[in-house]
Amino acid sequence: MKKVKFLTLVLMLVVSFSFSSCGTTNLGSKLKRIEIGMTKREVIDILGNTYDVIGARDTPDGALETLRYTNITVDGPIPYIVNFLDGKLVEWFKEPSNYPY
């Protein structure tokens, strides 16, 4: 009887860990691989195509396009902003949280 309870507990733990990792993305480690100056295609190849285009405009320096990637964690979503100028990565950063005052 003890063996059955132990095996049931082990199985429940394995299933729990498996499902808890399903809802997360590993965006944090992928961000470490991108570098300023990369092309949009190179960045998308690393970070994936699960982004939202949140802005695009012409500037005196060229076409600026802004993408948002969202890292899903157990603590909730963490959005990252990625900016391209004429198709080249010029900056990326963690989007500030909007705290109610």
Describe this structure in words.
The structure is a single chain. This protein is α+β, with helices and mostly antiparallel strands and 101 residues long. The chain has a single domain (24-94), classed as Beta-lactamase Inhibitory Protein, Chain:B, domain 1, CATH 3.30.1450.10. Helices cover 34% and strands 38% of the residues. It has helices at residues 2-22, 27-31, 40-47, and strands spanning 51-59, 62-73, 76-85, 88-94. Strands 1-2-3-4 form a four-stranded antiparallel sheet, covered by helices on one side. Strand 3 (76-85) and strand 4 form a beta hairpin. The chain is elongated, with a radius of gyration of 20 Å. 6% of the residues are buried. The model is unreliable at 17-24 (pLDDT under 50).
Spell out the key features of this protein.
101 residues; alpha+beta; Beta-lactamase Inhibitory Protein, Chain:B, domain 1; 4-stranded antiparallel beta sheet; 3 helices; 4 strands; 34% helix
